[in-house]
Amino acid sequence: MYRELSVAVVIPAFNERRAIADTVTTVPDFVDHVIVVDDASTDDTADIAERTGRGEVIRHHANRGVGSAIVTGYRRALALACDVAVVMAGDGQMDPDDLPSLLDPIAGGAADYVKGNRFRHPAVWTTMPPVRIVGNILLSTATRVTSGYHHVFDSQCGYTAIHRDALARIALDELFPRYGYPNDLLSRLRIAEMRVVDVPVRPIYGAHWKSGIRLSAALHPLPWVLLRSWSTRLAAQARRRT
């Protein structure tokens, strides 16, 4: 419980055997439920998570994508009647000490969805790999246009917190299931007129960091996802005006 809010942490994971135990065990004690969603890993990620003895592990029998894994976690958080669902990736790149910063705007009634922004942390320029900085700036700029949230940046940061009322306003089955999910979600939150807030979070990239995202995954289908999200938002806003 955090400031009278029951909190679930959703941890999507695919082949994260090296980091998953630390990710699970360092989740703050005030979190009520830890939900690991193993997206059909080919290693023993799920077994390691279960051996921590904390929370529960949900296994996908086929790989569906990170967006789909997060949706599975969201549905479980709703079934547990949690007030807020936080997403922390299974790769250990999200600082547990930043979690209160994501929850405070929701607890204070100022936001429905809070996302981390690593570009508001001074360490981003020396910690984030240059290729990630360039790609993130391009995608964040495009997502500002497609989502309509012109104050939001670092669109690809997956460290987020969402209130259950906002989840109820989103068609979870329609969210893009793979890389590009956060860009799609922001547009749908805009359609639902949800309040979105950026907060600084610490960028973490270990010495053995290696991106699990192929260039092909970023180049395709991300432009299509952005275009679809943009057109869907504009159409919804046009209907609202008529």
Keywords:
242 residues; alpha/beta; Spore Coat Polysaccharide Biosynthesis Protein SpsA, Chain A; seven-stranded mixed beta sheet; 41% helix
- Give me the strand/helix succession: EHEHEHEHEHHEHHEHH
Number of domains: 1
Strand order of the largest sheet: 3-2-1-4-6-5-7
Major sheet attributes: 7 strands, mixed
Computed over alpha carbons, the radius of gyration is 17 Å
- The poorly predicted ranges are none
What share of residues are in beta strands? Answer: 5-15%
CATH topology, what is it called? Spore Coat Polysaccharide Biosynthesis Protein SpsA, Chain A
Structural class, judged by helices and strands? alpha/beta
Helix content class: 40-55%
Overall mean pLDDT stands at 91
**In the CATH hierarchy, what is the class?**
Alpha Beta
Overall CATH architecture: Alpha-Beta Complex
For the record, give the distance between the C-alpha atoms at the N and C termini, rounded to a whole number.
43 Å
- Count every helix, treating DSSP H or I runs of 4 or more residues as helices: 10
CATH superfamily: Spore Coat Polysaccharide Biosynthesis Protein SpsA, Chain A
Q: Secondary structure elements and their pairing?
A:
Elements (H helix, E strand, L loop, with lengths): L6 E7 L6 H6 L7 E6 L6 H7 L4 E4 L6 H14 L4 E4 L11 H9 L5 E5 L6 H4 L2 H18 L12 E4 H5 L12 H11 L4 E5 L14 H5 L2 H20 L1
Parallel strand pairs: 1-2, 1-4, 2-3, 5-7
Antiparallel strand pairs: 4-6, 5-6
Helix pairs in contact: 6-10, 8-10
Explain what this protein looks like in three dimensions:
With 242 residues, this protein is of the alpha/beta class. The protein has a single domain (7-241), classed as Alpha-Beta Complex (Spore Coat Polysaccharide Biosynthesis Protein SpsA, Chain A). The chain contains 10 helices and 7 strands. It has helices spanning 20-25, 45-51, 66-79, 99-107, 124-127, 130-147, 164-168, 181-191, 215-219, 222-241, and strands spanning 7-13, 33-38, 56-59, 84-87, 113-117, 160-163, 196-200. It has a 7-stranded mixed sheet with strand order 3-2-1-4-6-5-7, sandwiched between helices. Helix 2 links the parallel strand 2 and strand 3. Helix 8 packs parallel to helix 10. It is globular and about 55 Å long. The N and C termini lie far apart (43 Å). The model has no long low-confidence stretch (mean pLDDT 91).
